[in-house]
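Thread title: Can someone regenerate the structure for this chain?

I was given the following input by a collaborator and told the matching structure tokens would be attached. They weren't. Posting the sequence so someone can regenerate them.
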Amino acid sequence: MTTERATLDAHRRDASAAAILLLVAAAVAVALGVYASAHHPAGRPLFTFGFSGMLQLKTWFATAAVALLVVQLVTALWMWGRLPRARRTPAAVAWVHRWSGSIAFVLTLPPAFHCLWALGFGTGSTRVLLHGLAGCAFYGAYAAKMLGLRMRGLPDRAVPVLGGAVLTLLVAVWLTSALWFFSRSGLPLT
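Best answer:
Regenerated them for you:
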């Protein structure tokens, strides 16, 4: 096999793997959006975990998840050698990255369940529509990133790009929900 042929085959494998990830992301995002649109919203919380209401629970869980995203960003930059003076990556950095991401994801689940089950897919305002779209896209990007970590044949930048998409989409969700809530009601503690 010639070098040109091998390079062409490698590009095809890269493109196929990337296409699979994009299809997975789209399928997850669309499935969530369709469910949220088709489901008749309950209009009441599933649980509040001691918070005074559903919005307070959603706001604080989302805020904690975004705080852990800062940890995710710093540890990812450290692991990829993008921080000054971070020539060597201790094993603990990968551990912190993995666990902060896992905890952040788990923290997104109660707000997402409430959005999907209690509120449905809202289109009443631009903010609400953008929030719903970003939320669905976040879970699609997260699914693609988790799958991408295990796939062979992806371009080298695929996982960092997917990680950046996950981070960006969760920040967009937070900006259109928690920040909006805080700007309307202050910083309620419960």
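The mean pLDDT is 90.
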